[in-house]
Specification:
184 residues; alpha+beta; three-stranded antiparallel beta sheet; 2 helices
């Protein structure tokens, strides 16, 4: 065999025993950069750079986690609010019936207690009824169905009759009030 041939155990023929090679192919003393010997200061700089890269990766992952948590919390709150809005929307016809019964003095006894409790629960969740005779007409809050004059003259368009109360949930109009208006 010649010097360039190898025996099965990995040692070159005619050479002395060498140190085993690292997985990268360089001996433990050699730097991975084309066989150049690395100075201790270079190794420290390389390690500091590696620490800096890993620190930036951790900071990036931490920021991603914080953003994910905020997004999940926001989505959870939106889903909760949508559920509340849906249930309160289903109660609006019941509240309309209670309002009509109050106008005709048909709320008494046990029914009055139930009606009061239902109104408390809906108010606790932020549902507010609006729309009364004499209010200034606001197209963002009211749906004008017809013109109904008032006995006294008005200077601005005013609600003269309420056919159906409107409802707001935490400041957002869920249903506009259906009204008749008096024009100046």
């Amino acid at each position: 065999m010649t010097d360039s041939q190898f025996v099965p155990d990995g040692e070159a023929v005619g050479e002395g025993v060498e140190e085993p090679l690292s997985p990268t192919g360089a001996s433990p003393v050699e730097a991975p950069v084309e066989g150049a010997v690395q100075e201790p200061g270079d190794r420290v700089a390389e390690l500091e750079k590696l620490v800096e890269e890993r620190t930036l990766d951790l900071q990036r992952l931490g920021a991603e986690y914080v953003n994910y948590k905020k997004r999940v919390d926001r989505d959870r709150d939106l889903a909760r609010q949508a559920g509340i809005e849906s249930v309160l929307g289903d109660f609006m016809p019941v509240l309309d019936a209670i309002s009509l019964a109050r106008q005709h003095d048909d709320v008494a006894g046990g029914f009055k207690m139930v009606a009061d409790e239902l109104e408390k629960v809906t108010a606790k969740h932020g549902l507010v009824a609006f729309g009364a005779v004499g209010d200034e007409f606001d197209p963002n809050l009211h749906d004008a169905l017809m013109a109904v004059p008032l006995d006294q003259p008005v200077t601005v368009t005013t609600v003269s009759q309420v056919m159906q109360q409107g409802y707001q949930l935490k400041g957002r109009v869920i249903r506009p009030a259906r009204v008749g208006v008096a024009n100046p």
